[in-house]
Specification:
This protein is 82% helix and 0% strand. The chain has 18 helices and no strands. The protein starts with a helix and ends with a helix.
């Protein structure tokens, strides 16, 4: 059992990294136009500045989680902070598009290491009766980063240039590194087992092909890459059954209903909610004729509510069965998505703000308890890989969410510029997207409720 000072350092360090990584994801989009002008980049190249980070983070997640379980979670966490900060420094001094894209790929590797170890360390240190509360604070920090990212990113870019965003990231990284080095002890319950390097290569190929395919959907080439990714995924699963100490222990999914269903719930929740900001950003600027700054101020209400209520939801899941709390959160999210399926031109801004707040509340009530359920349903030696799998569900859900939106827009509007004469068609595409997401959230309710009782699982693994 760690003393209170160590717990404090761990919680602060975990919260800072969650804030830092979320801030970078949400703020970089505000800097893309200025970056494009400086480096004379086209739209496809600019898209890769965001996409390549997501790709390398996804590839790194599970291998990093396994390495953390084998060699030490704090060690991998510190490596992740160093790589993330160094990559931010390279981005600051980038003098070409290729160097900037390279630094973003490197940042993705560091981000993957951070994602796979943050919650694992918190879970390793905080006992069951405090775990949900601690996870709630880290989740709130991530949502705070998402909230202030667009505003602070816009202010920094406008007044100090796009490089100032990366300077701030370096400063946060240095502070987090200093705090983390004050933490005593290490956690590596799977120490002594072998690393599955061949499985890691197959896993990386599978993810690279699938995510690249998703990024260029709905083209035929995109479908081909996705199919190739699925084939490599099947080969990866086959190999995991063959290897004595697999990269990803499939038995964790097969024999642990709570763990499996909680991860599927997370996948469905991320899939049904990630594209909300994209859809409403377009709606507010095209239909409501608002400028980007005003649209950003409206969209901030969802992550703001998520930030406020996540710690309370996590604490609640320490006292009430997490399955019940997270299922209620998924239900509230479903109601909010269903309401947006009736969005029209003349709907008031206040109505949009209130419904965003409702979805944010549902998101908060779902996320922390669901994360608590996942991490508390596995043995200690799997904390790193469990955290990595949860991060993978998030990444896949985000990609699928945007892919669904792009397919709907392509089928209903076509690959053309959205002009005033297409606004009614655009609204139809937005409503269709929200309907699909509401249906996915409804299935999420069913999966979440039927995951099983975490307390029974805890009795087995303790």
């Amino acid at each position: 059992m760690k003393n209170d000072q160590d717990k404090f350092y761990i919680l602060v360090s975990a919260s800072l990294t969650c804030f830092m990584t979320a801030f970078m994801i949400s703020s970089i989009n505000l800097a893309l136009p200025e970056i494009g002008i400086e480096f004379n980049m086209d739209a496809v190249s600019l898209n890769w500045i965001s996409t390549i980070y997501l790709l390398f983070a996804a590839i790194t997640l599970v291998p990093s989680g396994r390495l953390a379980d084998l060699y030490g979670r704090k060690k991998l966490f510190i490596f992740g902070i160093v790589i993330f900060s160094a990559a931010s420094l390279i981005s600051t001094f980038s003098n070409s598009a290729s160097l900037l894209i390279f630094s973003r790929a490197l940042k993705g590797i560091g981000g993957g290491m951070i994602y796979s170890t943050t919650i694992a360390i918190v879970t390793s240190v905080f006992p069951l009766n405090e775990r949900g509360n601690a996870i709630g604070y880290t989740v709130a920090a991530a949502y705070l980063g998402l909230s202030v990212g667009p505003l602070l990113g816009g202010v920094l870019t406008q007044n100090f240039g796009w490089r100032s965003i990366f300077v701030l990231s370096v400063l946060l990284g240095v502070i987090t590194y200093i705090i983390t080095t004050q933490i005593k002890g290490e956690w590596a319950e799977a120490r002594g087992e072998k690393m599955d390097y061949l499985g890691t290569i197959i896993y990386a190929l599978s993810f690279s092909l699938a995510i690249y395919g998703l990024s260029i959907i709905p083209s035929i080439k995109g479908l081909g890459f996705i199919l190739a990714g699925i084939i490599f995924a099947l080969v990866f699963i086959y190999w995991q059954f063959k290897f004595k100490n697999p990269l990803l222990n499939i038995e964790v999914f097969r024999n642990n209903r709570c763990f499996s269903f909680s991860n599927i719930s997370a996948l469905l929740h991320y899939t049904s909610t990630f594209a909300i900001t994209f859809l409403l950003s377009l709606y507010l600027q095209y239909i409501k004729d608002l400028d980007p700054q005003k649209a950003g101020l409206i969209l901030i209400f969802q992550p703001l509510v998520m930030t406020i209520f996540s710690p309370y939801a996590g604490k609640l899941s320490d006292r009430i069965e997490p399955r019940i709390v997270s299922t209620i959160g998924m239900f509230i999210t479903f109601i909010g998505l269903l309401i947006f399926t009736f969005i029209e031109k003349n709907i008031s801004i206040i109505f949009i703000v209130l419904n965003l707040a409702l979805i944010g509340f549902g998101y908060a009530i779902f996320s922390s308890p669901n994360m608590n359920s996942i991490m508390s349903s596995v043995e200690k030696k799997y904390y790193g890989i469990a955290s990595a799998i949860l991060g993978t569900m998030r990444t896949i859900g985000q990609m699928i969410s945007m892919t669904i939106t792009m397919i709907v827009f392509t089928l209903i509007i076509g690959r053309v510029e959205i002009t005033p004469d297409l606004y009614l068609t655009f609204l139809s595409a937005v409503r269709t997207s929200f309907l699909i997401f509401a249906i996915l959230a409804f299935f999420g309710i069913i999966v979440s409720y039927n995951r099983g009782n975490i307390r029974k699982v805890r009795k087995i693994i303790i």
